[in-house]
């Protein structure tokens, strides 16, 4: 600087070069936003790659505009640049652009994320500009006007907020960013860079340091400015990290809630949602195996449902021989880091599934243990973490609901097929068994015999002794006959005082001996009449029963207390 005079950079700005640099910045920002729009529609791995490319494109465009304008001043002011700080300024521009675009390139963007991304973009542009300015090599000293520095950063922030806010406002159901919207956002980013650049250039004075302030604000050295920007970047990085963690937790929570909703729907829609709970445990907790065990009443825990390739497993719940059994008894969760070191414990589970670490949750219904939920990993984990334990506890609670509902549905199904008084199959169950018996006999070629049975003069018995005594007689008959029949034979209450006897693999002659045993086991107060028919290998089930009913009628006409073969 001749004669110790001071000089401002703005006095030598080339208007043509300024316009070209601005257009270049807008063009590269437009391309970067197009890439970010593609990232929004891509899957997770590709999305990360596209966002990095988008950030690098925008950062290089911002940096290019700045240095294109700065290079035009190199000759007129006789200064050069430090390569290390130039490269650092590129990093600031690229990193800031990538983080900012990552914050707004989301299907749904909150207002706070827009402000955060604008803050980061404004700071990145400022850091890029002032780091590169700090890299100027010149004999003259540089003095900064703090007021203009702040104004330049406010311009960068405001224009970045306008640009990124317009990007966020373009989010729709199809996540499409229109070309016109991208152009507007790119222009705003160009204004952010240009506004900061030229205001920042106006804030610096080259020459010997004046005895007082050279501008309207306080003087600021390059080192102090770099320190301030570095602190600002650190604070924003911390905020972004915290926000990213919160966003990740919200995403995890949303995913967890969706799976829990599916489990609840399955419990309400299906009679047995045990398997759904095991699959949900595998998805939510990240375990390799999930199994739901319930006691079988014989001192064992039996796997009623599982995920993966576990298959049916039984474990002995004797005290000290099963961790799952201990959890069932104590109703307290257990986490075992390494099942292999606990000799003789739940060996069936280890051998079948290969699990090493397990979390076992008690399944409680009205404070009573009705099962255990086991979540296992085939590789060792040191600790499951609070989230996994919270989810396993919730799924154990859902398991209790599923088990209770499944048992209720099973009871209702059984009640729908069982006569309430005698405990025998009812008419509906008999119709099903009759059809199956005919089909089985047709396939096997074996005989199939049925017998219609009527308690003789039962109405008169009721009139004489009362209905409670009549009910007692029917229940006694049912109990006596069940004890006399083979495992494949079926006797059910057909209606009123009538019973239907199904004898698979039995012809008429053998059926006679079976019926005689039933007659001899009758209560002494009453007798029965029997009508017998053997399937002729042609007729349907309805016709077969009709023949047996006709034979029963003949037995009653002939005097009752006898057997007639139809």
List descriptors.
single chain; 566 residues; alpha+beta; Beta-Lactamase; Alpha-Beta Plaits; 3 domains; six-stranded antiparallel sheet; 16 helices; 17 strands
Describe this structure as you would to a colleague.
59% of the residues lie in helices and 15% in strands. The chain contains 16 helices and 17 strands. The strands form four sheets. Strands 9-8-7-12-11-10 form a six-stranded antiparallel beta sheet, sandwiched between helices. A five-stranded mixed beta sheet has the order 14-15-13-16-17, sandwiched between helices. Strands 1-5-4-6 form a four-stranded antiparallel beta sheet. Helix 3 runs antiparallel to helix 4, helix 7 packs parallel to helix 11 and helix 13 packs across helix 14. It starts with 6 loop residues before the first strand and ends with a strand.
Set down the secondary structure blueprint:
Blueprint: E1 7-8, H1 15-41, H2 44-77, E2 80-81, H3 83-104, H4 111-134, E3 136-137, E4 142-145, H5 146-169, H6 179-202, E5 204-206, E6 219-220, H7 222-269, H8 274-285, E7 289-295, E8 300-306, E9 314-316, H9 323-330, E10 334-336, H10 347-353, E11 357-365, E12 368-377, H11 386-417, H12 427-444, E13 448-455, H13 458-465, H14 467-484, E14 490-495, E15 498-504, H15 508-520, E16 528-534, H16 541-557, E17 563-565
Parallel strand pairs: 16-17
Antiparallel strand pairs: 1-5, 2-3, 4-5, 4-6, 7-8, 7-12, 8-9, 10-11, 11-12, 13-15, 13-16, 14-15
Low-confidence stretches: 209-223, 236-241
Residues in β-strands, percent:
15-25%
Let me know the average pLDDT: 77
Structure class: alpha+beta
Number of separate helices: 16
Helix content: 55-70%
What Rg do the Cα atoms give? 43 Å
Shape: elongated
Termini separation: 130 Å
Total beta strand runs: 17
Q: Describe the biggest sheet?
A: 6 strands, antiparallel
Order of strands across the biggest sheet?
9-8-7-12-11-10
Domains (count): 3
